[in-house]
Amino acid sequence: MDMQKKLYLETFGCQMNVSDSEKIVGLMQGIGYVETKDSAQADLILLNTCSIRAKAEQKVYGHLGKFKSLKESRPGLIIGVGGCVAQQEGEKLLKRAPFVNLVFGTHNLHQLQDMVRGAEEGRRSSATDFIDDEARFDLFLPHGREGSVSRFVTVMQGCDNFCAYCIVPHVRGREISRSAAKIVDEVRQLTASGVTEVTLLGQNVNSYAAKNPGEPDFADLLRLVAEIDGVKRLRFTTSHPKDMSQRLIDCFAEIPKLAPHIHLPAQSGSDRVLKAMNRGYTAGQYLAKVSALKKACPEIQFTGDMIVGFPGETEADFQATLDLMQEVTYADLFSFIYSARPGTAAADLPDATDPAEKQARLERLQALQKKVTLERNQSLVGTVQEVLVEGPSSSGECLFGRTGGNRATLLDGDEALAGELVKVKVVEGLQTLLKAEPL
Ligand code: SF4
């Protein structure tokens, strides 16, 4: 009989949550839990929630309802909620969902082991205090899923930008950067355990250490991390276009390990809408950064985020967004219809656009992007790329990896290649992936 305690974890939202979930798995392994993909088998169910979209709280309560009957049939089951909705709701969540054992906010992962142990003894708890200094980062280390070749390393957290639509500064707190020495230490530890690709992570990495005099800026931090022997490939996300310096752009020409890919969210192509969003740049300024990046690194691939139907967006504004997309030619784009988040500056703006019109605009935008993505993938056929092999593909029939430009790629080869950079020739460009042959 299998006596190991099982954890079922669901993650919603951005890469910061994905990264936090890796740490949660590591923390729970530390107190005897192994991960399961089957919630019916779990002794501990954790939801790592996101509040970026409308009605996020209701959706979390709805989702939790699915686990209520499980709890009724197995009273010892522990249910916990973390992430941005937990941060907003706190104690309220324990009251509204009496079958939930614990609620942990975005700054409280370090308390999670104790909270789960307490729940095992029948105690319910909530922890949502912000920790507004660098000590926060030390509390999270060094935990993560075993065995992966690619890992996130948090370099800063929080945000001071207050884009008019965004809840992040309210649920993740103000911007705080971690010391370069500690980041380098963590990367060294990861490479010693077999990790070969690191992604430096933060809400806006471009303003890394802006408030820490004496620390290197983000461009110099990239150089420090690239010097570590075991690092074969380096990435970063996310970048605010207004803080993208020429020094950082030059890194793409000067640091061979830096992958030729950047996630650079524009959000709109209309100057009027960008101003209303409080983004701090015009479409022209955004495009100037794009062309400087293309000049520094001609093979660079762009991904981004776009919001459709921001309050007051006209057809002309929307057309400007399509125009900007045509000029950038994103490899991929995450696009959403604007949804008001209570407490943000845009929440009370008058919004006369018909929801059906917003939906139609989103569909037009996504159709354009689908075409561009396929064209870009097809244009890579015949080229030589470097793929970092992550392991077997989901079907198990071949290997899965990613090009420097972050294109998902299938290739033949031995599983022992996991973690290695392999030179391949692209033989097919499909909508969502490339097929390639090792050289
Ligand atoms: S830069 Fe803007 S969109 Fe990004 S996290 Fe900060 S407030 Fe949100």
From TrEMBL:
It is an enzyme of class 2 (transferase). It catalyses: N(6)-dimethylallyladenosine(37) in tRNA + (sulfur carrier)-SH + AH2 + 2 S-adenosyl-L-methionine = 2-methylsulfanyl-N(6)-dimethylallyladenosine(37) in tRNA + (sulfur carrier)-H + 5'-deoxyadenosine + L-methionine + A + S-adenosyl-L-homocysteine + 2 H(+). Residues 378-439 form the TRAM domain. Binds 2 [4Fe-4S] clusters. One cluster is coordinated with 3 cysteines and an exchangeable S-adenosyl-L-methionine. GO terms for cellular component: cytosol. Residues 5-121 form the MTTase N-terminal domain. Residues 145-375 form the Radical SAM core domain. [4Fe-4S] cluster 1 binds at C14, C50, C84. Its cofactor is [4Fe-4S] cluster. GO terms for molecular function: 4 iron, 4 sulfur cluster binding; metal ion binding; tRNA-2-methylthio-N(6)-dimethylallyladenosine(37) synthase activity. Keywords: 4Fe-4S, Cytoplasm, Iron, Iron-sulfur, Metal-binding, S-adenosyl-L-methionine, Transferase, tRNA processing. It is found in: Cytoplasm. Its EC number is 2.8.4.3. [4Fe-4S] cluster 2 binds at C159, C163, C166. It comes from the Bacteria. Pfam families: Radical_SAM (PF04055), TRAM (PF01938), UPF0004 (PF00919). HAMAP family: tRNA_metthiotr_MiaB. Monomer. Catalyzes the methylthiolation of N6-(dimethylallyl)adenosine (i(6)A), leading to the formation of 2-methylthio-N6-(dimethylallyl)adenosine (ms(2)i(6)A) at position 37 in tRNAs that read codons beginning with uridine. Belongs to the methylthiotransferase family. MiaB subfamily. This is tRNA-2-methylthio-N(6)-dimethylallyladenosine synthase. It comes from Geomonas silvestris.
